[in-house]
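A student in our group prepared the protein record below, which I am reviewing. Thanks in advance; the entry in question is below.
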Amino acid sequence: MCSYDAYDDRITNASYRKRYSGSGGSGDFDNEQPRDTWESRNACRNAVRERVRNKNPNAHDIHWRENSLQVNRENRNRTRYSGKGGFVGGRGKKRSFDFHCTYDFIDRRVIQAKAKVH
C-alpha cells in the first residue's frame, strides 16, 4: 500500500506484506530464527513419547531433557527438535533415548518423529 500527497509531491506512507509463495524463492531465511511454539513443541513431545512407548510398552515418566534440546529450522515452514530424553522402564530401570522430530507449520502436524532407546 502506498499513499502519495500530490500537493507536496511526496509519498506519505508505504507498507507491504510479504506472502508465502510455496516455491522457495529468494530471501535470506537462513538468518531467521526457527519457529518454536507451544503447539509445535507439544505435538513433537507427544509424538516422541508415542515412539518410545511403541518400543517399550512399560515405559512411563517419559520426558525430554530440556538442557539437551536443539531447535533448528529445516526450511521456511518446518522446525526440527532434537535432543535426549529419559524414562522409567520395566522393573523401575531408568533408560535414555535420543530423539528428533520435525513439525510442519503449514499442515500443523508432526511429519517425522524418531526415538532411539539406549
About this structure: Helices lie at 38-55.
